[in-house]
Write a structure and sequence with these properties.
The chain has 282 residues and is α/β, with parallel strands linked by helices. It folds into two domains: 86 residues, Leucine Dehydrogenase, chain A, domain 1 (Rossmann fold, 3-Layer(aba) Sandwich), CATH 3.40.50.10860; 126 residues, 3-Layer(aba) Sandwich (Rossmann fold). 40% of the residues lie in helices and 16% in strands. The strands form three sheets. The chain has a six-stranded parallel beta sheet with strand order 1-11-8-7-5-6. The longest helix has 20 residues. The protein binds NADP nicotinamide-adenine-dinucleotide phosphate. The site of NADP nicotinamide-adenine-dinucleotide phosphate has 24 residues, from helix 10.
Length: 282
């Protein structure tokens, strides 16, 4: 069997087509705060800025020095919270080492109405309530849901979805969003015993670890839908978690890395900024 290729660009283009007239009408503004010069972050920010341009959204890239203190960063956040012209903003993660222990405090400082990454407890909590309350959901889970919906791979309702990741930004909110759609969800992580026994049960398998070839063909059920979120970097080369060439012969559909979920994380960020503006003017 050769699987259907789930390319993120096609889905992102469809989302941008819907968003462009709304951007024109509502005129939102997105600010991206970068601290330091992490090369992976620089590349993600470039994609985000490019997508703002694609939909005609006003944007600003605030690039702070790697030595910025926690107090200085919190004061930048405070200013953005109070700036009426700024619809939404994100603090690009990861932060430099000296700020990493303060990430929960830094996220907590973001005004939830402007939290277009969907990382604050308020927005995560709303996502937990029901599909109708997913107003500013975290961007990557939201992009994965958009991918499943776009390709009309059948409803997730009643399907067994196995997620390999339990982080606050991917696995946990994704599990909740799938439960909101009546899937049966299993969440795995580094402490899961016999990962293959779990992944082999999946109608839909979603892996987000960042470990190349973690998911091999013998871990996948014939006909499963496989979504690869993980990213490993070796120089300029990006690789997912899934042994793509072998798994595509078993799966019914598979997303590549790069060019799979990545563009949808960005498209969901843009959509959240539009939604934030809609809510702010209501
Ligand atoms: P993270 O916080 O480091 O989460 C990694 C997850 O993988 C954790 O739940 C971890 O469990 C689990 N894990 C580690 N080793 C494992 C193993 N051998 N078997 C099973 N599970 C294992 O990272 P994250 O921010 O969620 O991101 C995860 C990956 O997705 C990264 O590669 C990141 O680059 C990628 N990502 C891609 C996009 C995109 O748009 N394409 C967006 C976000 C993230 P423990 O916590 O127990 O160790």
């Amino acid at each position: 069997m050769s699987a259907i290729l789930l390319t993120g660009k096609e889905v992102a283009d469809a989302m941008f087509k819907q968003l462009t007239p709304l951007v024109k009408k509502l005129d939102p503004k997105l600010v991206i705060v970068q601290v330091g010069d992490d090369p992976a972050s620089a590349s993600y920010i470039k994609q985000k800025l490019k997508s703002c341009e694609a939909v005609g959204m006003r944007h600003e890239h605030m690039h702070l020095d790697a030595t910025v203190t926690k107090e200085e960063l919190l004061s930048v956040i405070e200013k953005l919270n109070g700036e009426p012209d700024v619809t939404g903003f994100i603090v690009q993660l990861p932060l430099p080492k000296h700020l990493q222990e303060f990430v929960p405090q830094i996220i907590r400082a973001i005004e939830p109405k402007k939290d277009v990454d969907g990382f604050t407890a308020y927005n995560i909590g709303k996502t937990l309530l029901s599909k109708e309350f997913e107003h500013l959901p975290p961007a990557t889970p939201s992009g994965i849901i958009a991918m499943l919906e776009f390709y009309k791979l059948g409803k997730v309702e009643g399907k067994h979805v196995v997620i390999v990741n339990h982080s606050n930004v991917v696995g946990k909110p994704l599990a909740v969003m799938l439960l909101n759609r009546n899937a049966t969800v299993t969440v795995c992580h580094a402490h899961t015993k016999d990962l293959a026994a779990q992944t082999k049960q999946a109608d839909i398998l979603i892996s987000a670890v960042g470990k190349a070839k973690l998911i091999t063909a013998d871990m996948v059920k014939k006909g499963a839908i496989v979504i690869d979120v993980g990213i490993s970097r070796s120089g300029d080369k990006l690789t997912g978690d899934v042994d793509f060439d072998a798994v595509k012969e078993i799966a019914s559909a598979i997303s590549p890395v790069p060019g799979g979920v990545g563009p949808l994380t960005v498209a969901s960020l843009i959509r959240n900024t539009v939604r934030a503006k809609q809510r702010q003017i209501e």
